[in-house]
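Supplementary material to the annual report.
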Amino acid sequence: MSPNIDLENGIGLDMRLITKRFPGVLAADQVNFSVRKGEVHGLLGENGAGKTTLMSILCGLYMPDDGEIFLGTERNAVEKVNIGSPREAIQLGIGMVHQHFRLVQSHTVAENCILGLSDKSIIINHTEIANRIAAIGERYQMHIEPDSYVWQLSIGEQQRVEILKMLYRNADVLILDEPTAVLTPQESQALGITLRAMAKEGKAVVFISHKLDEIMEITDRVTVLRNGCNVKTVETAETDKEKLANLMVGRNVVFSVERPSFKARNPVLEVDGVTAQNDKGVDAVSNVTFSVKGGEILGVAGVSGNGQQELAEVITGLRRSTEGTVKVGGINLTNRTPDKFIFNGVGHIPGDRIGVGLAGNLSVSDNLIMKAFRGGVVSRGIFLRNEAVRDYSDRLINDFDVDTPDRNTPVRNLSGGNQQKAILAREIMARTEQGTRDNGLLVAVQPTRGLDVGATEVVRRLLLTQCEQGDAILLISDDLDEILSISTNIAVMFSGKIMGIVDGDKADISEIGIMMAGGDKSAL
Amino acid sequence: MRIVIENRIDAPRVIVVLVPIASVAMALVFGGILMSIVGADPIETYAAMAEGAFGSPEQWKVGQYYSITETLVKAIPLMLTGLAVGVAFRMLFWNIGAEGQLVLGGVSASAVALWMGDLIPGIPDSAWVYLPMMAIAGIIAGGIWAVVPALLKAYLKVNEIITTLMLNYVAILWYQYLFNVAWKDPAGYGFPGSAKFGECCKIARISGRLHWGLAVAFISALIMWIILDKTKWGYQIRLIGENVSAARYAGINIGKNIVGVMLLSGGLAGLAGMVEVAGISHSLQEGLNVGYGFTAIIISWLARLNPWGIVLVANMFAAILVGGDQIQMTMGLPGSVAHVLQGAMLFCVLGGEFFQRYRLTVKR
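Predicted assembly:
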């Protein structure tokens, strides 16, 4: 079975019944994906839907557990291929432009283009290479100076170099992984023109995105994935944003818990007109205003990379804001250091569990006291009380059901779910011990990312319990199901702004989907 | 059939103990091969080294412990500088400048010894006054020298490897200028070196040249162990060393800790300088910058930054150094054999870590 073979254009790529398992996760479940020559094919899906897994298989990074891959040949036939490594993928004419560029900053464009090519001659013919690059650039409307150094180029230009690099290697199938995530609207538009030009030349272009506007604008067809399965492949011209949003998110909320009845309390977190920059010095959060009351879960929905991470960092003291104020429990904590936030009852479940939330080589016990070590529970004067540390960590391991051989095991050896339980235990208990529980704030960023169903449920229930006990919870998640199932209110973020805040009970998925993609709520 | 490298989740205890021992043995075998190449009998040479470092039973019988005391004399500055760089390395702050910090510690302790009496008339000529003052001066000088790169790193993100390394040369050149020119003893018959210190500026001897600086080194190790293992500060240092993002997230002030730890690190190195001038040379003269601060890097790394491990490895290295000097005299071999052995040990132990972290299995 090969869906939609269009003999007129010929098949560029056909992946059939691809299955890929990771420990505990079925990342791709009998997925079919077929791209014609001469089309731009959108691959749409939420984080964790299997888009990246599928494309990593295609470019030789993973081997599929099951399934076959066919590539189109010049005579419009198809040929079964076996892609064992990235090098083989390139030899087969499959090129991928990753989200994070693989360029040597201190080399020129031309040098980057020939990097890794096994040319037989020892001497590099600069003129010839430059001419070829210029010719490719002209053909696909990408102006780039072959002799300029990569570090001199803007992000958009660097992306063009990545594409050039693939074209220079004669790629026939081009995969772009969320290419517009790093581009300005103007650069995105230019990219669209380039992609259309490449399709016109007979190349098969795969465009991965979860921004519905771009999918509508650039692609010919769209394949939607959800939870590692095919949902549908549709002609772009025969669908609209709302339908795609529904396909992407799915109507069925898999997980449902009793949402707590919301009793109005005093606002715990007040964010007023906050603007903050990302690491590159570009405004990532612009003029955001909202408040979270005790006993409320405010879910922040949005495609990742739209400023949610930066917002969470501003609210926990890890990032400076350039404008606006952040108050917790009525106390102005704007641009104070993280410890001030901790003392004022702010708990933080960071999105990057391993990179920020834990010190992997240290023991479970050392990780559990990361916030409480200053307080009297485990220390006296300048000393840590070893016995108290032992009792405290055993209590947390026990109360929060953290599955670990013992408290001295390095925390990196725990499963993701148990690591997350440890973090939750720490963040919740540290505040209890400090006696700031009543007007506590918990900032939870992607709290269930990468967790299995059981652990996901435990984490969500813990958040709900905290909420019932009067904590204010700011839940930032890419997982719309999660936001919908436990939030009291839902704020949608897009390119650093809050597009709107809706009541959790009356939330309409397609409305949220449109706002997530930057659409205007009123335009519906 | 192929050999596959697998990650070990938890290294068994046997491996943790066995690998370092096997690594040191490997280094000795490597050194033995080198000795054979230059025409010396390895067993005979190692025996001579051991005798040079620890003495022989005949000597012990007649109460001669010169070899052992000389080894301990060398171990004192190695222990102190080892502890100094070890604490900084725990935080992943690469203090390569212990040599300069030691030298300046010696310089400022010498200044106190030579001129405190003139500056503060009526101060009693007592070791209980002078030695603590010299120690404080040494600690402060070493600390200041270490805090400069710390501040540059903490607030301007300047790479500390470069700054600590370069400041060594500044310190060493100053020290050479001082004992060769500015502080040269007019009554020294033209030889370089300052005037001899007064009696109250000398650390008392235990046996031979061995002095009570040994106690200073052990007490320092004890204090470092308590700080690193028992205190909140030690916990913070460990957390910063393991994951600086997590430390920041836990509300730890990274900049303040860098400065604090480097004050401690430089202070310990400075104390080593003070102990050297007050315990051995009794004046500011040639011989302070003989590479203790650099050898300390290898020592603390081999000891896995554990204070008691540093004490152990520093003594082992001191034995190799003294033994190396010995074979230079008795067997006519170059003394640099000792340095070759040190280098070989570092390589073998670092290489041995591979076997602790990974397991080789044969798959067919």
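The mean pLDDT of chain B is 91.
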